[in-house]
Structures are given as structure tokens and as C-alpha cells.
Amino acid sequence: LKQKFADLPELAACSEFVHFACTSEDINNLSHAIMLRDGLTGTVFPLMEDVVSTIAELAEKTAAVPMLSRTHGQSASPTTLGKELAVFADRLSRQLAQAKAVPLRGKFAGAVGNYNAHLSAYPNADWEAMNQAFVTDSLKLDWNGVVTQIEPHDYIAELFHAVMRFNTILLDFDRDVWGYVMHGYFGQKLKDGEIGSSTMPHKVNPIDFENSEGNVGIANAIMAHLADKLAVSRFQRDLSDSTVLRNLGVGLGHSVLAYASALKGCGKLTVNNERIDEDLDAAWEVLAEPIQTVMRRHAVENPYEKLKALTRGRSITKEDLQTFVASLEGEVPEEDVKRMLDWTPRSYVGTAEHIARKVAEECK
Question: How far apart are CA 309 and CA 23, in angstroms?
Fold first, then answer.
């Protein structure tokens, strides 16, 4: 820059003010913050928003689709497909808000953060106020006035940890959707010319969710190292952060690939209601929970134990359960007996539909 200034008479006299009282980190830390801001606002955050809104839309569309829950891999109290998707939209939305809230900070205070050189040349200038105005007003970054030679990078660790949490939740989503595809609850739209397997022509693999999962793993491994490393620097500065900072975009880049893959996969999903209903119709044992709960309300003796003896580890039919309910007449009011006889696994979903629609609305 000084050489270029020398060719311009109006700037030549100012050439010694290029990099005046600066250390290289005064320039680099501001550049990194600006690059992060541009990458986040221009690419990363919009894709994260698309992931949240896409899952929320799926949740809304399937809010009323009853589905068998699985806890410990076993049949459990029914829910709706939309509510289970809404759980992910809600979790992801919270982490996205936290990532967006991380302030991108900058320093401009010289070799060790005390304006030593600045004051030696201009002892009466308010260097802190001037430099703060430059960082906040001109560059639109948050000011960090308590530093060493470097801005300590704590905000980068905060940012990456928030993005990592978002990514981990997305991985959880990827694996659950993969499982729903495995169980046949989701089908996938076919694409002409696509090959599912080089040897098994019938295959339609959930490759987009697998690709998303793989990229999340790489992204989080890199960002975890950066978050751990960048917050540590010997005394007032060592150079071990320099090579690490060159990889700021790598973890975010793999995150972008993960988001794009998940979005592509979501666009292929179709709901197989018949397959979902098939599992519900074969799981009448899940009604043991509400039946024993009503029995408890009316002080029937040993309700849990009676339902456990009837249902645990056994395949129960509609007739088996209704015979048991009918036997409760005299111990449970007739109105409640009739209500229990009307129950089915499909109807026993609590507030699942309401939750799904509420979350979908909040995430729009």
C-alpha cells in the first residue's frame, strides 16, 4: 500500500500512516469477523432457516397423522408424525436463535492491547474512543476493548458451539427420518435415471440423510477443534491460532453441505399412511397405560399390576383389551368404561396434533 501511495501525490505524504501503530492481528481479527458475518448472513443462516421452516412445514402437513411411538425401540404411547417432526423444528429454531445472537467482535488496540505506540506519537488523543468508533460505526462489529495482541476468539467458540448444537440436532433428525424410511413410514419420490444400488435394482436408499449425517460429523469435528484451540493463546499471543483460523470456513462449509442434503431429502419424502396404520393396529397393548391410569383414578386395586400381567411381553388384540375393560364394570363408572371401549391406538395421541400445529406456526 505504501508503494502504491507513492505513485499518488495526494496520498504520498500520508504513506507512513499505513499500518500506523498496528499489529497484524488488528487487521486480521477484523477481517475474520467481517468474513464470518458475510458468510453467516449470506449463506449459512438462510440455509439453517430453510431447514427449520421445511421441517415445520412437514410437521404441519402431518400434524394429524397418528403414529406409534418407540421408546427403547419398543412400542410406546402413540403420537403423531407431525408432532415428532415438530420437536426437531422447535429444537433447531432455538439453537439457530442462539447462533444468530452471538456478537461478532473486533479489537484495534495495538501490539498488546494498551495503545502503547499510539500514545507515544499522539499522547493527547482518545485512542480508545476513536478506535471503538471505527470498529462499531464503520465496520458494524461489536467492540472488544479488553484484549492482548489478539481478540481472544471467545465469540468464535460461542458461535461454533451454537452451530454444532444445531448440527447435532439435525443429525438426530437425519437418523430418525432414516429410521422412518426403514420402517416404511416414509417413502421417497423416485428420480428418473437414479441408481439406488449397483447390484440391487429395487433399492431407493435414503442417501440424502446419510450424506447430511456424514457432513455434520466432519463439520462438528472441525468446529470443535477450532472452538477448543482458538480460546487458548500463550501469554499475550502465540502464533498457533494462525493456521487454525485459515479453516474457519471449512466447518461451516460442511455444515452447508449437511443442510442442503437434508433439505433435498425432505423434498423427496412421501407419507405411507397404510404402513403407519398397520403398526398402530398391531399395538393394542399401548392402551394399557390409559386404562390403568383411569383405574387408579377410581381406586381400583393394583391397576398397574393387572395391566402388566395382561400385556407385558405379549401380543394383545382389540378383543383381549376390550374384554378386560368390560370386566371393570362395577369398579369403574359406566361412563368411563364406555369411553375406554371406544379408545383405539389411533385415537390415543393426547395433544400431539395441537403441539405440532403450534410449533409449525411459531417456526414460520
Answer: 76
Residue among 78, 88, 46 at smallest CA distance from 359: 88
Taking a C-beta distance cutoff of 8 angstroms, is the pair 108, 134 a contact? yes
Nearest to 252 by CA among 112, 99, 125, 133: 99
Burial class for 225, CB neighbours closer than 10 Å (0-12, 13-18, 19+): middle
Burial state string for 181-216 with b = 16 or more CB within 10 A and e = fewer than 16: bebebbebeeeeeeeeeeeeeeeeebbbbebbbbbb
What does each of the 364 residues of the chain score in pLDDT, given as a tens digit?
Answer: 999 999 998 899 999 999 999 999 999 999 999 999 999 999 999 999 999 999 999 999 999 999 999 999 999 999 999 999 999 999 999 999 999 999 999 999 999 999 999 999 999 999 999 999 999 999 999 999 999 999 999 999 999 999 999 999 999 999 999 999 999 999 998 776 665 555 545 557 889 999 999 999 999 999 999 999 999 999 999 999 999 999 999 999 999 999 999 999 999 999 999 999 999 999 999 999 999 999 999 999 999 999 999 999 888 999 999 999 999 999 999 999 999 999 999 999 999 999 999 999 999 8
| Side chain identity, residue 67 | M
How far apart CA 125 and CA 122 sit, in angstroms, is 6
Residues sharing a CB contact under 8 Å with residue 242, sequence separation 6 or more, in sequence order: none
Among all residues, which ones are annotated catalytic? 72, 197
Can you spell out the DSSP letters for 288-315?
A: HHHHHHHHHHTT-SSHHHHHHHHHTTS-
